[in-house]
């Protein structure tokens, strides 16, 4: 499809392509008066040999030596030079080997981060400051033009739920808020606590829809009629900057050392409307956390990751759509899965195909209203940033689910087919999204993480299956402060 994917971890290169001509120019650069070698891939060694045989002047040997030192430097210093395209790596490595060099090049996916995060733990700037470049490159989110379930305020969400264990309300608790939610971890470590809706979700109470939180950067009449007006959808497409939502996003910045900073933007919705297969809807749940990650190296954006259900996609910063310098991402109707392009996003299932749908609906600027934090993924410590110093932190440590527990099959709201269910568990919070990941992708370290250099709106994905919904991840993806035991 014309893309050149690469696998990246913590130490990122610039992600720019280097042409064969540029490499050959470096390898062939010599003093004036020396005859140029033909342009072919074996020329660097043959040229060195020819020069040595035909002209033994010391004034020529020095530039040749410097040329090979420069080449070795390029392939062993990925933090300061562009990543060499995959198609050239084998050829250049062969050149170096033929010429007697054993330095080779170092794949940036295996570079160690030399500055440890724990070394930065007491630095007040790291603990509390959000770098300005994080906001300068904050994502803009196109919500779907006919969305029914808009962004919601996590504080408001807590007024409409009751914590339950095994479908039984927990008694004797004060009113939940963002400053005491972590006390629920006293019950079975919080793992089996579900923030259960006080209303029957099939009655669609207003608080699930979040209509009051639609971004306000368009006319009032379009805001009140956005659910069924194609004319307003056309107006949305003309937006050049994002609007304010009364539902705050959550920004977590993580300094991972060696100039690597991850900026996680989390978006919360009180309801997730599942996908349809064969006119049957699967995967509904109360509460929905989605995120976009932008990875920076020395203040420059390198990679954009967008969450899609239990996985996601990663793109080089240069590949994604932008307004100014800011990446543009798309939230799918109902599921709120994040994508880099508008349109249809199909998934292959064993028994059919489902799809997510995105378009250029209301453009949301989460930087206009967000709770901002810094997080140390080694010590599992969250700090409010200097931009929102009064932001509560206790909610972050809640280890349970932000919605109802999977409804049993004897509940008349529930049905299942081929391992998929109409209603599934509510989600875990941001702390469980593998914040300490070295790869930009969300999965296990053994899973591949492909950074796409081009957008592919026609990509077809394989559906991973939701089962009964979210649960504690594997130990390697859990936050360090979480108990290791308790696996089911």
UniProtKB/TrEMBL annotation:
Keywords, in A-Z order: Membrane, Transmembrane, Transmembrane helix
Keyword DNA damage assigned: no
A matching Pfam family: Vps62
Chain spans, region Disordered: 456-488
Annotated coiled-coil segments of the chain: none
Transmembrane intervals: 62-81
PANTHER family assigned: PTHR48172, VACUOLAR PROTEIN SORTING PROTEIN 62 (PTHR48172:SF2)
Protein name (database record): Vacuolar protein sorting-associated protein TDA6
